[in-house]
Design goal:
Helices cover 28% and strands 23% of the residues. The chain is built from six helices and seven strands; from the N terminus they run H-H-E-H-E-H-E-E-H-E-H-E-E. Helix 5 links the parallel strand 4 (123-129) and strand 5.
Length: 223
């Protein structure tokens, strides 16, 4: 695995202090298991990625925006070297407590998805269950650059997000369509599989997921 040091965070434009403080205060003011997006078990997309073999046990997987660590813990229980990163200290603390209670070893740290503290090509796989869709529109290109940077060539990426079809009041304000996600990611990643979950009412909004692989060849030229 590539152990090259990461570029200094100051060389990369991360989230604003206001954005970081919003997430810190959210977890400081509300118990993690009372937050509307908390799931006690893994996301459907991560479970499917493991059960289908898209994510390979033994690999190192980074969960960006890990929240209280449900996906990190599930991955560790299934033979992965699981890491989580989140801007909220409360989320990181919850991940560590829950992992200890589950008797699994994980790595969880505070950090910014727009300035990831990892070396270029140093991560085998990455999962995101609800981080990308919370970002302001102007920040999404920066996110794609960072995810692409830390993944090794051919690395796996599992992304899920609240669908544009969700019309309820709860959820991210800028809910991406499949076309928007493709426009951001297709030049750097191959779309191996995508799917739609219609959800089950307000507590489980409709979502999309995509299984992607970091390109090993240059993006084909436009025709």
């Amino acid at each position: 695995m590539d152990e090259r040091p990461s570029r200094p965070a100051r060389a990369r434009r991360g989230s604003s202090s206001r954005e970081r403080e919003r997430w810190r205060s959210t977890y400081a003011e509300t118990p993690f298991d009372e937050l509307p997006w908390f799931e006690p078990g893994p996301s459907n997309s991560v479970r499917l990625a493991v059960e289908s073999g898209f994510l390979v046990p033994g690999s190192e997987v980074l969960d960006v925006g890990c929240g209280a660590g449900s996906n990190v813990i599930y991955l560790a229980q299934h033979g992965f070297h699981a890491k989580g990163i989140d801007p909220a200290p409360g989320a990181v603390a919850a991940t560590r407590r829950r992992a200890a209670a589950a008797h699994v070893e994980v790595s969880a740290q505070e950090g910014d998805v727009l300035a990831l503290p990892f070396g270029d090509g140093s991560v085998d796989a990455l999962v995101d269950n609800g981080c990308f869709h919370t970002l302001p529109l102007r920040r999404r290109s920066r996110y794609v650059t960072e995810v692409h940077r830390v993944l090794r060539s051919g690395g796996r990426f599992v992304l899920s997000w609240v669908a544009r079809e969700h019309a309820g009041p709860q959820g991210p304000p800028h809910r991406p369509s499949l076309a928007e996600v493709t426009a951001h990611l297709e030049s750097r990643f191959l779309f191996v599989r995508s799917g739609f979950d219609p959800g089950h009412g307000g507590d489980y909004p409709p979502t999309y997921f995509a299984f992607l692989v970091r390109r090993t060849e240059p993006y084909p030229p436009r025709r």
